[in-house]
Amino acid sequence: MSFRTVVASSGKSLSASEKRVIAILLGEPEPSSLRAAPVAARAQTHESTVVRLAQKLGYSGFPDLRADLERDNPEPVTASALMRSDTGHELAVFARDEARALERLSSFIPQEQLVDVATSIHRARVVYLFSKADERPALDMLARRLRRLGLVVVELGLGGKDLAERFVSFTEDSILIAFALREAPSQLPALVREAERRGGTSILISDAPGYHFRPAPTHLLVAQRGDDSEYNTLIIPIAIAYALQLAIFHLDPDRYGAVRDDINDVSRLVGGTDEIPLR
């Protein structure tokens, strides 16, 4: 996850020396070479202050912090490095890797956890969805799956007044579902915090196992995507969208079956016989 996002979303109060350390970290062009002791010397503080700051921000130690900082300053990569140069571009290899990611999905998200999240969505009056632009296909798929259940869905904009105008109706009966793949959107910490302040629920779908998001959402669904660290598809997030739809449906088959029939009836009414959905 981005170190800048972690700092921006942290609700911890910082001392003057800790603020100097953060300023040095954010201004470092080559974070891979950083060590706690030299950073402390530059900030005119003790090495223990640097280590404690990392832990205060949720990291296990300074090396863990440095890894996030490196994500803010990635090394230049060639196009080939982004396109499965190591894992292989052949269809059979690509399909095998994605199949492996699907097979281990249930080990990351147990059925009990999926049902728990589905129950929260089932009880919500309105579902609000949020993601970065490059995650939009997964968000659009989830929105469609939820609308097929008759749920009221609001897709939030990417920022500014458009996002605020759509989110302002969020209440204690609402639920926020957000995607944070590879990195969390910069607006996400504020949205999660505001959803909590308004008494609602938040769900975060991520691909970063072991990471502690701040502020913590009500529910966290985390599943690793393909094995290639640079080339990840949306197959796993989209599979999660389908799994959530199925889990919600089976909480109340009569209710959601009636909605499905109603959708079919309205489709016939407005679309004609050629537009009758097959499912």
TrEMBL record:
N-terminal signal peptide: none
Pfam family membership, one: HTH_6
PROSITE patterns linked to this entry: HTH_RPIR (PS51071)
UniProt cross-references to InterPro entries, sorted A to Z: Homeodomain-like_sf (IPR009057), HTH_RpiR (IPR000281), RpiR-like (IPR047640), SIS_dom_sf (IPR046348), WH-like_DNA-bd_sf (IPR036388)
Domain HTH rpiR-type residues, every copy: 1-76
Source superkingdom: Bacteria
Protein name: HTH rpiR-type domain-containing protein
Native source species: Rhodococcus ruber
